[in-house]
User: Fold these one by one.
Assistant:
Number 1:
Amino acid sequence: MSTRYAQHPDAAWEWFRDEVVVLAPAARTVCRLNAVGAQIWACCDGRMTLDEISRAVARRWNRSAENVAADVRAFCLELSRRGLLRRAAEPALRPAFARPANAGPLPPYVLPMIAAEKGMPDGGERDRVKPRSVTGLP
Amino acid sequence: MARSGAATSRGLSLFGYPVRLTGPFGAAAWRALAGPRAEREPSAQPLLQVRFERNVPPAGPGMLDGVGFRIDFENREIICAQPRKAGAQARDDWARAALTAITLFAQQHGPAAAAGNAAGGQVPLYLHASAVATKRGALVFCGHSTYGKSTISTKLLRGLALIEFDVVTVLVSPGNRRARAVPPRVLFMERYLRRGFGAAAGARPRPWALPLRGLFWLRKAPYCGLAALPAAQAALGMLEPILGLDAARAGQHRLSLLRALLEAVPCRELSFPKDAPAVRHFLRAEGLL
């Protein structure tokens, strides 16, 4: 699971001991996250993948990563549904788009990436497409 | 013909915050608010400017309307209309409008913006709660509507000085640990407004900000009891009302103020029956009265 989630930029949140209260005024949602949820929430910074988060949670609570992976994914999906999390862009794709204006046309291997980025909101599809595109890199 | 604001500009300390009063009615408002023992004009940069006009001008962007006043957040200004009431009633309205503006300002621009100007470095925080004054400090009772805030403060604990019965202003010290060493205080508006007015010569003024002795989340029950309440659960209950133009930013600031409050004084769940002697006896046994 290389999916990444990031906290919604409009979400306000604060630690209360080991718990977290999250507030998303735009989505009119308020959530209280327990210690495990708070750890997952804090890890959702747009850089850590679900696998990495699962490993971090498993390490802290003395569980196996395989056991917690499904729960972590379901939790992130639920917060995403409530408008508190959103899928983060793949960090590896960013340098390809951060080109100066006078850099000339994009190389052909970047175009499938753009298509995948624009046309596939579903994470599974993007995960499947990305490796094929990356293999074209020099 | 209205005189220029600069000609009538006066400064004073409102709730410990430096405020500048201007406008055609600024001098009258200053005399009413400052009282017979006027506080020294603050030398610090005023947190707010309060302009008193005959009528409140039309609202513009970045402004918030209140009853008889308008808050311009960007220019740090409150525009108050000339009140139809007179004397003490007008003074109370002006003071309450200024307190509302200071509170909203703190929520909109962040606690640090207001704390930097305040004398004690404390920031006002609204709570949907009731409060009573005891010899040892203020007891604040929180809860949603119908949870018994008014009942406990006005009926069950009758005889204690009522601070507020619906909205309580708590002065909180946000920031680092050193700043948080100043304990939260509860604003006793009535005492603040009456300070110096009509008091006997030489009488010691009673404090208008009391130390927060206890913070409770109410729960109706057939018995009396106190139980620990997780800070996050308490914060969730106290989150409303979030006031401000930018709700996300105001929400973040309110959460940080609630955290500072709950770290200083933990909230406990108070179960209570509708039996005044039992409640009083229980609170006295707990050392709260």
Number 2:
Amino acid sequence: MSSKSSKANARAQKAAAERAAQAKREARRRMLTVGGVVLAIVLIVGGSVGYSVWKRDKDQKALEEAVATAAAYGVSIGPEDAPHEVIIYEDFLCPFCGDLEEETRDDLARLAADGKVRVEYRPFDLLSQIGDYPIRATSAFSIVLEEAGPEAAKKFHDLLFANQPSESNPDAVDNDDLVEYAVEAGADEAAVGDAIRSVANRDWVTEATEEARRVGVSSTPTILLDGKVFDDGRTVDDLAENLIDALE
Amino acid sequence: MNGTLAWVGLLARLVTGGVWLVAGGLKITEPDASVNAVRAYQLLPSSVAEVVGLALPGIEVAIGLALVLGVLTRGAGVLSALLFVAFIIGIASVWARGIEIDCGCFGGGGADPGASSAYPWEIARDVALLAASLLVVWLPRTRLALDSVLFENRAASGAAEGEVD
């Protein structure tokens, strides 16, 4: 029980308190470091995503400006002075285009007939690296348009989507099938048969495709509603529904 | 032995991190292509694909930076491994469904006939990178990691992790 041992005791206590304070400071420093690093990561991710969104928006704006001056390779329904104008860039092989067509075909036709909208379908070749179906189908479309008029061409366009082959087997629809659909749409087999079978309008397809590329259409379907890119939808079904709602 | 492993860990970090940096960096400037590449897998609803397509490149760059620098190394390794698992599932799934697409791993993406011949190699590559990520997670320390500077044990309590370096 000497004062010596109580002094040692006090020293030990002081040392322990210092260690505890040190550990606390250390823990605090770690927390701050982790926080700082996490913040830096969040800033990097946020900045990147922000840049991507901004870039996409800029690309869309450029597309909207270009489309205003684009030459029309396609077919329209509805009166020219309708209050709304819809332009749909599509590829006859693109499955999302097929889904969109299925969801909107009847409603758009009805709205166009009621004079509420003018719809312009602009098919082009986006997917011919999978197979030449987009070229064959788009060429046939332009042949029907030239030989049998816009009404038959629209019907032919609808038939192509209704009988769309899958991306994994685009040759399931051959040129004879295309002729058959053309006749069903109202074209005269004598007038269109040979041209469709020999894919005579490749140039038309090339020009339509170049025009779509110049505008900046890089995916299908690309929808423009009154000159603005319309992509409001969680799924293609949603997109179709929202488009029709916007036009009703 | 541990010393060698720590160097191997550094190599694993640099390789996986480098791959992430390149993959993310190439995609950040092409957001539309990135969104379409995700859509082409036909696994996610359109809007989810859009969010993933816009967010993924930034996340990839961040993971890449974290791995290369060795910051929050284990966390970055876990995320890296999870993403590789997701990619392996994605590629296996398009392969199984007979969809032929460019994996969009380093930009690009979308339909690509004959792509299925590349699937085995792409999966093998991702499995290798997954293994490297898991190694980073498993190792307590790797060489030249910023973590060891940031989280250096200054206090005497370092004894608990005594074998550091």
